[in-house]
């Protein structure tokens, strides 16, 4: 086998590698041949010392020195995809699955805290708006300067509106209390266990 045949075999085996990796490998082996020629060795002696191209390729691949373009050297896409899926699933089961209960607990605590805070804010907003609108409905006021004042609203309507606003605020308050109760329960479970 000659130098050119040897390098062609290397190019053939490393055809799936990235272009820059292939160029670097070929230039390294050309350098081996140059240094062998300086020592007055024949092509056969140099090739024997370097080893078979297929063995070189397998060594590079197993040590992770080269990277592949496609990562699919087997040729069967279905098998490769199945292997990749199996590896990903195995990695998920070993790394992520044990952590999922912790993530779920953290997410549930965050949801309870956020919901409780939002419910308290809505309760305060309901009561504030109810007070303002009840006051505005109980007096005669003129929203715009050129418009006649609004007609008087009956006391029953004002009372019903006021009770509805207070009820809505209390509903939000009780929802907030329940959310914080569940949040504290989750926090206590975390501390105890």
From TrEMBL:
TM region positions: 118-141, 153-176
Keywords associated with the record: Membrane, Transmembrane, Transmembrane helix
Superkingdom of source: Bacteria
Protein name: Predicted membrane protein
Gene source species: Veillonella criceti
Species lineage: Bacteria, Bacillati, Bacillota, Negativicutes, Veillonellales
């Amino acid at each position: 086998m000659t130098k050119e045949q040897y390098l062609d075999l290397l190019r053939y085996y490393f055809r799936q590698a990235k272009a820059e990796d292939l160029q670097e490998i070929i230039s390294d082996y050309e350098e081996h041949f140059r240094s062998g020629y300086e020592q007055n060795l024949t092509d056969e002696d140099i090739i024997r010392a370097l080893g078979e191209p297929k063995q070189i390729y397998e060594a590079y691949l197993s040590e992770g020195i080269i990277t592949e373009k496609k990562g699919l050297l087997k040729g069967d896409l279905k098998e490769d995809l199945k292997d990749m899926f199996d590896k990903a699933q195995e990695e998920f089961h070993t790394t992520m699955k044990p952590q999922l209960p912790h993530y779920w607990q953290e997410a549930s605590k965050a949801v309870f805290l956020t919901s409780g805070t939002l419910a308290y804010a809505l309760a305060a907003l309901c009561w504030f708006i109810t007070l303002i609108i009840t006051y505005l409905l109980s007096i005669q006021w003129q929203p715009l300067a050129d418009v006649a004042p609004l007609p008087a609203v009956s006391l029953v309507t004002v009372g019903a509106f006021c009770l509805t606003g207070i009820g809505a605020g209390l509903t939000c308050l009780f929802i907030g209390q329940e959310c914080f109760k569940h949040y504290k329960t989750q926090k206590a479970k975390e501390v105890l266990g």
